[in-house]
């Protein structure tokens, strides 16, 4: 070890030539760290700081969208009179702005039904995004079911899963009435009992312990009430 | 003229001891009776010109000492039984070079914007000279590369070539496989047609089904809660800049280890005794004798 040799210089040492060597520059009795070691630590520390100054902002830049929530967006999709209780009306509105048609989503909208035990006077807007892997489902009028073309997921009239691989009911959109117009807002997911929770991606379970295994993401909006 | 004289001296295969002509070639048998002819100026100029490539290489070699490495790499020994299955790694490398080359030329016409990506791909396919061919090479070449990687991996596995001391090369190879899959996944979105859009939606959602970290990974890939404009530029940057650099660096490490450690013989070739080995009994006897 060079450091050990530095310390020993002038005090002990093997050959007479070594013993005659003067102390290294800056040496003093009882020093805790040799000059060489101090410079090594300082150089590596500075290098580490310089590296972190480049890497950390770059990583933060790439990761930041996880923590960013966009502006809440509401869009009118038609007068209240257009929607009935016993069947859905298909509407298309923009969920993600500035990417053209790719940012549009389809919702199936109806009035809440007393027969199904729902609170009266509400607007129900069901997303057509399959809860399995995100393919677009279609409401089949004759069967009264939502059916997914990709892997055969089937949902009942309320959007609850009744067959196939989906892991939870279809998502909903927040809905409200302004000036006689039905407006649709942010997406939210529901549990198997149709309790609203924050929006989850397709394929993720909701309710119970799954709320912890698939934690809500900061980029999604709070559900309409509770959850 | 012998073909060997075309190869610059530093890269020529070293002669075995007792063979070869010496530095200046064979001496004329009757140097005394027939004096050597003086070549004309033009002939001498021609001789000089012939040596120019060799001179240039020697100049480089004196300053880099690369010839030792190159001869060691190019003339390294391969085991008995080496066969066509051993070319699958080189084939994968060739597929990667095709992807890199065609990718660079596709990037000259491609626009990574959600509103223009589809139109720019249509422009490449319909208007650009040989555009459909280059795009097709890139599209089908990606499948070829994935298939070749798995064949190469299967060869390594079934020939037992992953065993000591080559485990690290297996690990590097698995990382290269994952990076290639990342390339295939991110490249699929770039045409931004219906198929690539929905395939990416499904792929990102499969990522999201991983517990605890899955939802955040999905948000990271999409750069937000929904697939949008930033998703495309993100996939483009990963596909064009991030992963290719990592692949090139790891291919370098992979090939360094191949050259350094050598290749394995196929499992059906058994190691024989060296030709000039002494009989075992004699060795034992001499060892015992020195002990006693």
Descriptors:
A: 227 residues; alpha+beta; Rieske Iron-sulfur Protein; four-stranded antiparallel sheet; B: Cytochrome Bc1 Complex, Chain C; 10 helices
Concise structural overview:
The complex is a heterodimer of chains A (227) and B (292). Chain A is built from four helices and eleven strands; from the N terminus they run H-H-H-E-E-E-E-E-E-E-E-E-E-E-H.
Q: Could you characterize what this model shows?
A:
The complex is a heterodimer of chains A (227) and B (292). Chain A is an alpha+beta fold. Chain A is built from 4 helices and 11 strands. Helix content of chain A is 20%, strand content 24%. In chain A, strands 1, 2, 3, 4, 9, 10 and 11 form a 7-stranded antiparallel β-sheet that branches. Chain A has a 4-stranded antiparallel β-sheet with strand order 5-6-7-8, with no helix packed on it. Chain B has 10 helices and no strands. Chain B has a domain at 85-261: Cytochrome Bc1 Complex, Chain C, CATH 1.20.810.10. The mean pLDDT of chain B is 87. Chain B is an all-alpha fold and 292 residues long. The longest helix of chain B has 33 residues, at 229-261. The chains are: A alpha+beta (227), B mainly alpha (292). Chains A and B meet through loops of A and α7 and α8 of B.
State the shape of chain B.
flat
What spatial form of chain A do the alpha-carbon principal axes imply? Answer: elongated
Summing up helix and strand content along with how strands pair, one would put the structural category of chain A as alpha+beta
CATH fold-level label of the largest domain in chain A: Rieske Iron-sulfur Protein
Q: How would a textbook summarize the main sheet of chain B?
A: none
What is the number of strand segments of chain B? 0
């Amino acid at each position: 070890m060079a450091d050990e040799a530095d310390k020993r210089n002038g005090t002990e040492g093997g050959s007479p030539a070594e013993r005659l060597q003067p102390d290294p520059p800056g040496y003093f009795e009882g020093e805790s760290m040799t000059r060489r070691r101090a410079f090594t630590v300082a150089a590596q520390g500075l290098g580490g700081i310089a590296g972190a100054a480049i890497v950390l902002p770059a990583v933060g830049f790439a990761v930041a969208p996880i923590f960013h929530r966009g502006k809440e967006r509401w869009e009118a999709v038609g007068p209240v009179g257009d929607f009935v209780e016993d069947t859905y009306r298909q509407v298309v509105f923009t969920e993600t702005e500035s990417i053209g048609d790719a940012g549009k989503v389809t919702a199936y909208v109806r009035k809440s039904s007393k027969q199904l035990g729902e609170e009266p006077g509400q607007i129900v807007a069901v997303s057509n995004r399959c809860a399995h892997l995100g393919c677009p489902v279609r409401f089949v009028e004759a069967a009264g079911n939502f059916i997914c073309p990709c892997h055969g997921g089937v949902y009942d009239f309320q959007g609850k899963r009744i067959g196939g691989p989906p892991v939870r009911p279809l998502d909903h959109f927040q809905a409200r009435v302004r000036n006689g117009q039905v407006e649709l807002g942010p997406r939210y997911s529901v549990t198997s009992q149709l309790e609203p929770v924050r929006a989850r991606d397709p394929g993720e379970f909701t309710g119970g312990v799954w709320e912890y295994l698939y934690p809500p993401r900061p980029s999604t909006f709070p559900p309409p009430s509770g959850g | 003229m012998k073909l060997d004289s075309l190869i610059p001296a530093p890269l020529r295969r070293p002669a075995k001891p007792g063979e070869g002509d010496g530095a200046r070639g064979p001496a004329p048998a009757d140097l005394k009776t027939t004096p050597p002819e003086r070549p004309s100026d033009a002939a001498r100029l021609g001789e000089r010109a012939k040596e120019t490539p060799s001179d240039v290489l020697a100049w480089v070699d004196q300053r880099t000492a690369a010839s030792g490495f190159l001869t060691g790499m190019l003339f390294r020994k391969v085991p008995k039984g080496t066969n066509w299955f051993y070319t699958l790694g080189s084939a994968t490398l060739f597929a990667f070079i095709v992807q890199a080359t065609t990718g660079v030329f596709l990037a000259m016409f491609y626009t990574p914007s959600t509103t223009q990506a589809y139109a720019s791909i249509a422009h490449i396919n319909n208007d650009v000279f040989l555009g459909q061919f280059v795009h097709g090479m890139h599209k089908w070449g990606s499948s070829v590369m994935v298939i070749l990687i798995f064949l190469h991996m299967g060869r390594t596995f079934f020939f037992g070539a992953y065993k000591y001391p080559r485990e690290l090369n297996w690990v590097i190879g698995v990382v290269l496989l994952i990076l290639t899959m990342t390339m295939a996944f991110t490249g699929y979105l770039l045409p931004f047609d219906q198929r690539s859009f929905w395939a990416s939606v499904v792929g990102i959602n499969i990522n999201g089904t991983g517990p605890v970290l899955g939802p955040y990974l999905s948000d990271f890939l999409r750069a937000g809660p929904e697939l949008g404009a930033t998703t495309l530029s993100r996939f483009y940057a990963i596909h064009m800049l991030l992963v290719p650099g990592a692949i090139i660096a790891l291919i370098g490490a992979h090939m360094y280890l191949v050259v350094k450690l050598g290749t394995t013989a196929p499992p059906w070739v058994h190691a024989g005794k060296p030709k000039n080995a002494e009989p075992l009994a004699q060795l034992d006897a001499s060892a015992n004798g020195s002990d006693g």
